[in-house]
Every structure is written in structure tokens, then in C-alpha cells.
Here is the input.
Amino acid sequence: MKSNFPRIPFLHGWEGATGMLEIECIQSLDEGRDPASVEKIETQIAALAPTDHAALADCWYALQEIPVRPDYPYNEPSDLESIRASTRANRPLPTLTNLQAALPDRMLGAWLGRSIGCALGKPVECFMGSHGSLSSKDRIKTYLTAIDPAEYPIRDYFPAASPASSITGVTGCAPSTREKIAFMETDDDIRYTVLGQIILQKCGAAFTSADVAKAWMEYLGYTQVCTAETQAYRNLVIRYGRTLDPGADAGVDWDWVATHQNPYREWIGAQIRADSWGYAAPGNPALAAEFAWRDARISHVKNGIYGEMFCAAMIAAGFATTDPLQVIEAGLAQIPARSRLWLEMRETIEICRAHEFRAAEFEAVLEEIYARFGHYHPVHTNNNAALVVAALLLGRDDFEKVVTIAVMGGWDTDCNGATAGSIWGAMFGAALLPKKWTAPLNDTLFSFIPGYHPIPISECARRSVEIATLLAAKQ
Here is the structure.
């Protein structure tokens, strides 16, 4: 995190300085910094006024200077060359001779699966934290069973109201509730998928991180981005202004952009941007992961980057196999084998294996995931990735089980439902998606991005097929 850029006072971003520093202390411990030194700075922060931005900035810089403890067991590089050198070889995916013929249906399945999973999770995304004695997943169960015990496990989009709302909290995102759903409403999980498609249409496989950053500033308003993306967007404008030339990539200090006053740098924001990169490289997880790295490095480091690479690679692999374990292994083959994400996904696989991959035991699996990874923030990469992995392994070829387990797991529900649905759709295609889930969307997406508001979801899929076909022809 060293930089020649002048030190500046703490600037408001996603939240105020004190809130960001609280999260930065946790992040510093996750990254292996000396606990006693972190605790000392926490004491200093507590004594400062929230408006003392210069002193709070000094605390920020002091945290970055704490060395990693000698016994830290993980190896977590952020540059692509070192990431590749830290991976573990994986068996090649099967070669599908009919991939091109199957691609339109599988691509539509991926777009629809992402839209369905996102819409399913949106009303209860606000349940991501604990509420009284209820965990995130228990809030969802309590909300549904109070309506009717038969509502759980989830069997349809969320009802807008429940007798338990005073206990669980109320749902949000009314256009995605059972009573009103008629299209895929705008959401960051969908806007980034659209944006990735636009970048690929304009730049092809040679797109750069600067192209991605330029697209953010051209198509996304500052209030349309969250957490790590907010900080990176702010940092780009502070240091480089609102325009970036396509050839500026090498001249940008991406590490500074991704890390400066950004305690969310390992949260889920990059992971939800994975899909268009996977769609562009069907059957080629390594290429999808490279595309994802170019995108993720703008706002994330370490496991934040790996989450996007992992998911993009799983989506790409999904076009070549219907075996969920093979898909997951293909994703893990693209990230460092001594990273927290790699090791924790292996633990998740073993948790599911101990329950014989039985969907009927999903609640027991979720309990174990919460016990093991519940220390992470509800929108961290690693715990949410565990829910996606578990949903794929337990639900297998049953779409409803996959997306509903991903959402019933709580935490970042719309992100997890969307990612799990996208991977399943790439694996099995649109023809096998149940009409009860597809029909309410009326093949319509509202994204708030010009040219995609509104647009048929099927047209988005057609464009992705066109991109993938063109890129494959140039390889």
C-alpha cells in the first residue's frame, strides 16, 4: 500500500471516517497484521473526534505500516503473475463438441438464472445482519414460516409482508416481491453484468482496467456504487479526474486506487461483477479468471480479487460440464491454494460431503457454515462464496433448490442467489428452468443503463453469445 501520492485527510466515502476505521482494524487483522499494534491504534481512534479527519487519516496510515506477523499462514498476492504461480493444477474440463450449438440456450439460462436469483434475494437483502437473537438466515425462516409453515423452504418469490415483520424487520425492493414482480428491477448485481457486456462489445478481449474504470464513470453515477466501489471511484476522481484514456492503464497506480481508505477491499463487490467475463469465455475458466482480475483489481485485493476470479471461472466451466463439483474445482484452480478463500471453500466442500451432499440437510450445512465463517462481515467475499458453493453442491441439477438454498443462507442474499443462479443456468440452460420462476420476469430487464432500460433478457443473452463467438474465433 506504499504510494508516492501525498497523504490527505480522511475523506467521507461510503461512510464516515470512524466507521471505515473500525472496519479497517478488522481488515488489518484478517490480513495478518500484528494484533497488539492494531489494538493500540484502535485505542487512539476511540479518543478522536469523528470530525478530526487529519488525525483519523494518520491512524489509517499507521495501520497500513503495521507489519504482518511472522506466523501468518496464508499466501495472498494480488498481481496476476503471482496469483497464477500460486495456483494448484486442475484436471482439464471435458471438451463439448456441441458447445456452440448449446450456447444460446445455456447463455439465456445464465442470464435468466442470475436475474431470478437476484430478484428472489432482493427483498431480504436487508436481513443480512443479525436482528435481536435472530441470525440472518433465521430472520428469513421466521419471516416465511409466520406466513405459513409451507412457505419454508422457499418455494416462490418473497411475499411483501409477514406477521413476523416486527421481529424480523420488513422487506425492501417491492418490485421484486411476489405480489408485484413483473420484470428484473435494477440492481448492482445486474448493472455490472450489463457493464461488462458493454466493455466487451467496445473493446473485445484486449480491454484493460482503465477501460473498466472509464465505463464506471461513463455509465454509473457515484450513488449507484457501494462500499469498495465507492472508495475506488472516489480515489480515481481524486487522483486522475473523471476521464481516463484507454491507454492509461500502465500509468495508473491501481494498488492505491483499490486500497486507499478502502477497508472493504475484500468484500463481495468484485465477486458480483464476475458474470460477463465468464459468459465471454465459455469452457475457458483461465481466460474468464484473467478478465475478472482486470476488473477486480480496480477496487479489491487478495480474496476480494479471488472471489471474482473464482466465480467467473465457475461460470465459464459451467458451459462445459453439469457436474457442480467439477465446476467448483475449475474455479478453485484459478486462485492461490494458500489463500483463505481456497482453503475455506475446501472446508465448505467437506462440510457438504459430510452430509452426503443431501439437499434435505441444507439447514445443518448452513449452521456449520455460520459456525465456521460467521466472523466475517455479512458482505465479505468468503462467507458468501461458501453459501454459493454449498447451494451448488446440495441443489445439484435442481434449479429451485440451488437458488433457494443460496438465498435461505442469508447474508448477501441477492448476490448469492444471482451467482448461484447464473452458474446453474450456464450448466443446464434455459429450457430446464421452471416456468414458475421465469414467467414473472416477462423477459424484461430494467437496468438504468442507456440501451438496457428496458431490454429483453433474451437480447442480453444473444449479445453475450455474439461476444463469446467473436472472441473464440480470434483466439
The chain has a mean pLDDT of 95.
